[in-house]
Amino acid sequence: MARQITKAVVPAAGLGTRLLPSTKSQPKEMLPVGRKPAIQYVVEELQAAGLRQLLIITGERKRAIEDHLDADPDLVQALEQAGNEAALGDLAYLESEARFFFTRQSPPKGLGHAVSLAADFVDGDDFVVVLGDSMIVSPDPAAPLREMMAAHKRLKASAIVAVETVPPEETYRYGIVDVGGAEPAPGEPVAMEDIVEKPPVETSPSTLAVAARYVFSPAIFAMLSRTLPGKGGEIQLTDAIRLLIQQGEPVYAWPLAPDQKRYDVGNFESYFRAFIEFALADERYGYLVRKYIKAKAYEL
Q: What is the rounded CA–CA span in Å between residue 62 and residue 51?
């Protein structure tokens, strides 16, 4: 019987150059999105999905991530003494059963290389990968991961990759999957025939883009060891997944449902969108943000 998946890998070593100067001295994963830094949403999603061992892959100038995920008994005690229940609730991610582990990717050599650093941590188990700058907005943000992990065990898959539909003119920005022309139903696994990293628009096999969430068997590490560096000397995770497919391994795409939207902080345009979306949805201050935006709209 397959063991429960309890391990997650969170790559967070990118330089964030598209967000300079904001990322000159802080990780992009620590940029505030609403009231929380981006990576806190990711950690809370993983915890809610039942992941209990979290490996964060950081890099140069990323120490703030470790500090944010470190226990702070003195702060908690001060908040308890002040009766600040709201702030204590915001720090609940530190009080869960999850344990945090850290390793460094120096220098950054691509997402595939970052994941390869997790081999000893994974130790032969199935595991999850979620990018540290990518968040899900949904009534239950952890639902996709829970469902993907269940399907991974049921199908005895080597990989299940979350995907979302993007405009045709934007396919060059993403890893794009080919499911053979099938019309995938949201929340249902569909066999993947190919995957291509950032294809030209005119040759893109579909509009299904990788949505920064993966479930892998340990077989991915053998493929990563065979993956040659590509543009910029980086080893791409997409290329290793493609090798899995070419080896005849069972690889599936998992389309996100319409109420499961992904946001990231990869560039300023997407960061601004994410900030606005999360600010509007904030249970404490969202109504004030909506009120301000409605008033501001008259000036646009």
A: 23
Question: What is the Cα gyration radius of the chain?
Answer: 19
Span between the terminal Cα atoms of the chain, in Å? 59
Find all residues with CB under 8 Å of 64, minimum gap 6, and list them: 26, 27, 30
Position of tokens 């390793």?
Answer: 103
Angle of helix 286-297 versus helix 268-281 axis, rounded to 10:
120
Buried (b) or exposed (e) across 279-289, using 16+ Cβ within 10 A? Answer: beeeeeeeeeb
Q: What angle do CA 32, 35, 38 make, to 5 degrees?
A: 40
pLDDT in tens, 109-139: 899 999 999 999 999 999 999 999 999 999 9
Structure tokens at 113: 């290389």
Q: How far is CA 51 from the centre of its chain?
A: 14
One-character DSSP codes across 115-159: HHTTHHHHTT--EEEE-TTEEEESSSTTHHHHHHHHHHHHHT-SE
Q: How far is the C-alpha of 265 from the C-alpha of 270, rounded, in Å?
A: 6
DSSP letter, residue 257? P
Q: What angle do CA 245, 255, 3 make, to 5 degrees?
A: 65
**Complete domains list, the chain, with CATH:** 7-297 (3.90.550.10)
* 84-103 pLDDT tens trace: 888 888 888 887 788 999 99
